[in-house]
Amino acid sequence: MEIKVLGTGCAKCKKLEEMVREVAGELGVDADIIKITDLNEILEYDIMMTPGLVVDGEIVCSGRLPKKDEIRNWLQGE
Predict the structure, then answer these.
(1) Residues of the domain holding 20
(2) Is 13 a residue of the active site?
(3) Could you tell me if residue 45 is inside a domain?
(4) Domain assignment present for 27
(5) The domain spanning residue 62 has which CATH number?
(6) Cα(65)–Cα(61) distance, integer angstroms
(7) DSSP helix/strand/coil, 5
(8) Is 10 tagged catalytic?
């Protein structure tokens, strides 16, 4: 599984990365978690606001911090 956290380095972006790593660890998910901070690369995902979360190429969230339960569902493919 490939997980990308999109954000320029703000507090919410850092928190999202922390939450994703925590949930992935709890679930025992084998995932490559990539933090993308380059604005041009973020813009390729066509999101209006950061933070953004991409799971296996699909944008699942942008512009807000999701709840841990939401992250859990996305990582389990629900």
Answers:
(1) 2-71
(2) yes
(3) yes
(4) yes
(5) 3.40.30.10
(6) 8
(7) strand
(8) yes
> pLDDT tens digits, residue range 9-66?
889 999 999 999 999 999 999 999 999 999 999 999 989 899 999 999 999 999 999 9
Q: Please state the domain count of the chain.
A: 1
Kindly list the distances between the CA atom of residue 64 and the CA atoms of 20, 21, 26, 50, 74, in Å, as whole numbers in the listed order. Answer: 14, 17, 22, 7, 15
Q: Does a structural domain hold residue 76?
A: no
Residue 50 CB neighbours (<10 A)? 23
In a domain, 62, yes or no: yes
How many angstroms separate the most distant Cα atoms in the chain?
Answer: 32
Spatial distance between the Cα atoms of 39 and 57, rounded to a whole number of angstroms: 18
Q: Which of 1, 2, 8, 10 is catalytic?
A: 10
pTM of the model: 0.92
Catalytic residue (choose from 13, 20, 24, 75)? 13
